[in-house]
Structures are given as C-alpha cells and as structure tokens.
Design goal:
2 domains; about 350 residues; D-Maltodextrin-Binding Protein, domain 2; about 45% helix
Length: about 350
C-alpha cells in the first residue's frame, strides 16, 4: 500500500472493515450447482481462541455461504494434527491441504522471511500490510509457490501485538538485567543472537512444551505475545513481564497447489476473496486481544514493566546493532532490510 494513512484513520478503517467483513457473502443462486464438493483440512498450532484462529473460523463460515456449501474449510487447532513446523511439511506433502505458521518457523523451507525476526524492524503491527502486500511480499509469495508448491494466501498478525519478555526470576528493565537467564526461543539464528548479546542463554523449546519447561526450570523466561501467554496459561508460571517492543509476529497461511486446483473457477474466486477477508479479521482480532490479554495477565499477579525512554534506548541500540552482525548479513540481505524500512514510511 503506497499511501499511509494516519493511525487514527487506519484504526477507523479497520473497525469499519471488520463490521463489513463480518457480513455473510451469499452465493449466487445456481452458480455452484455443478461445482465439486471439496473439504480443505487446515493444520494450526494456535488455540481456538487465538486471533488468527477466530479469523479462520469466521472465514470457514463465510466460505461455505459464498460457495453454496460446496467448499468446506475444516480447521484443526492447538497442534491437534501437527505442530507448526510439521504442519507446513504436511501441507507441502499433501497430508493436509492448508497450514498456518509463524514466519519464524519456516526457516527449514525458506530463508526469504528471516528479516521478520529482526528486532525493532516493525514500527507498527499494521505495517505488515505494506510489506507483505507490497513488491517484497509478492516476491516471497512467488518463491514459496515455485520452491515448495504452496500458495501463500494471507499474512496474519498473531498473539495481540508485540512480544513481551516474560520470566519467573526478576524484574528486567534493561538488557543487562537478562544476563544468565535461559530464554525459550525458536530455532532461528537471528533470535538466538539477540539474546546472546545481552548475556542470556537462548534455549530452543517447542511452544507446546514451554509451560512445563518454565515450571521445571529448564528455561527461566520467554519472548511471547500477550494473547499467547494468556491462552496457553503460561501466566501461571511467569512472574514478570517487560514491554521491550522488539518483535511483532506474523503468520503465513498457505494452501497446497494441488488442493487449490481441486476447486473450479467460481470456487477458487470465492476462496481467494475469503482469504483476504480472513487476513482483515486477523488484524481486527489482534488489535482487540492485546489489552484484554494484558488485563487478564495482570489479574493473575504478573508484574508488567514499561521501560523508561532511556532504558528503551538501550534495548533499541542492542537490537539495531545486530543489523551489522555477520549472523544478520549472512542470512538477510541489507537491501531487504532497507526495503522493509522504506515500505513502512
């Protein structure tokens, strides 16, 4: 999107889009009378109450109405079929038709989205629309289709906005306060380097095993969005949170090319329009869930600290210094970083 509206205007437009998009899309009478009956199975690690999961449920209802009941979207949440990494592999092999996963969990299939893991790159959550929907996003979509046989359908924010740094040891105000803490991470080298720079110990743990890892002391903390922390009940096993504002998280929704080819032209058109609707609703729910999740977390006694401007400057400097590190330069082209920054202005 070339023109950037003000935050207030964007919020108003988003709310209006949410109202309009919530209306069912009726199928034209007889338009699908000769269409095949198709069921598309979708694997997700998100709990049913997560923002992107809510959007998927709404999209499933809309798709059924839009295709006269000929296309059914059947989601499986909370890793009931596969975790995120295995789910993408299952979609690629055809064991399921669709999958959704954090871009950070796509590193085994492609390095094209590693830039999204850079701290302090995303100025605002809604800026994802300008990046994923712009020329860089189109290039990534084409690469994923050509290389993996998967068609990207939407890039959805997840978890209620920026991640917070949570731990069960002490209040963390500046990076030096995290020294020695074992922080649960995903397996991306960029994220792991971020924690090493402050003296923490990055420890890859699957999200489904993190509750017990925190409970048993295998890790001391994690970097997670508030909605995820609350819905997964991790707020039962952490004591402190810090609003470091380093990372916004996006999830990519894909469909297997062969599964998409099972739809006739009319069904495919309705399906792709519904996936745009799903993305809009994911942004809507993401915004709504942040404050409600933080309120619920505080109610459980978790202390949330907001750094002062001087303290936040330390966090930003540590993150932005990484851009010149070999771990970043070897995995994220500097031109890509410059393009993402330019797209958000």
């Amino acid at each position: 999107m070339k023109n950037i509206v003000s935050l207030r205007a964007a919020a108003t437009a988003l709310a209006l889009a949410g109202v309009l998009c919530s209306l069912p899309a009726p199928a034209q009478s007889g338009a699908f009378s000769k269409s095949p009956k198709v069921t598309l199975r979708l694997s997700s690690a998100s709990p049913a109450g997560m923002d992107d999961s809510k959007a998927i449920v709404e999209a499933a209802d809309r798709l059924s109405k839009a295709t006269g009941g000929t296309v059914a979207l059947q989601p499986f949440f909370a890793s009931s079929l596969f975790d995120e990494i295995a789910g993408m592999g299952a979609a690629q092999s055809g064991l399921v038709d669709m999958a959704i996963a954090c871009t950070c969990n796509m590193t085994k299939q492609t390095s094209s989205m590693l830039f999204s893991d850079l701290p302090y790159l995303w100025r605002e959550m809604d800026n994802g629309r300008q990046v994923w929907g712009g020329p860089l996003g189109q290039k990534i979509r084409q690469e994923i289709t050509d290389k993996l046989g998967l068609v990207p359908l939407a890039f959805a924010p997840s978890g209620g906005g920026y991640r917070l740094l949570w731990n069960n040891r002490r209040v963390i105000k500046v990076p030096a306060d995290a020294k020695g803490l074992k922080i649960r991470t995903v397996a991306t080298p960029v994220e792991q380097d971020f924690w090493r720079r402050m003296g923490a110990i990055p420890t890859p743990v699957d999200i489904g095993e993190t509750y017990s890892a925190l409970q048993q002391g295998l890790v001391d903390g994690q970097h997670l969005q508030p909605a995820w922390l609350n819905l997964l009940k991790h707020d039962e096993v952490v004591k402190y949170g810090t609003e470091i504002g380093a990372l916004a998280v996006y999830r990519i929704l894909v469909v297997n090319q062969k599964s998409l080819a099972r739809l006739d032209d009319a069904q495919r058109k309705a399906f792709l329009e519904t996936m745009k609707f799903m993305e809009d609703r994911a942004y809507f729910h993401n915004r709504a869930m942040r404050e409600s999740s933080l309120q619920a977390i505080r109610a459980k006694g978790v202390q949330i600290y907001t750094p002062t401007p001087a303290e936040m400057a330390e966090w930003r400097k540590l993150g932005q210094d990484m851009y010149q590190a070999d771990v970043v330069k070897n995995s994220v082209p500097p031109a890509t970083v410059e393009q993402v920054i330019a797209l958000q202005k």
